[in-house]
Amino acid sequence: MPTGYDSATVWLVIALAGVLTFAIRGSFIYLFGRIDDVPPTVESALEYVPAAVFAALVFPALLAPSGDLAVSVGNEKLLAGALAALAAWYTERVLATILVGMGALWILRFVV
Q: Which residues cross the membrane (predicted)?
């Protein structure tokens, strides 16, 4: 996709974004290396980070696989995700969740 910027500007922006990303991540390592005790409010807030990141990664892929909202029976990814969520709730095992989700997706995509 062509842009109106020259290649030096694009590379400068990419390098700057990389340096800033590294600095943000390094600041947390530095900060938590200096603090002996993490405040209880920070600890309780950090407990929700994995679930929030997981939801941010999974839900767009399930609800809008082609970019538009697709909440229908024709969305095989949404159906496979729902079956995987049921397997996760029922078995509480990661491997069972993965097997049910991928098996359902393959069956819905290639057989049905």
A: 12-33, 45-63, 83-108
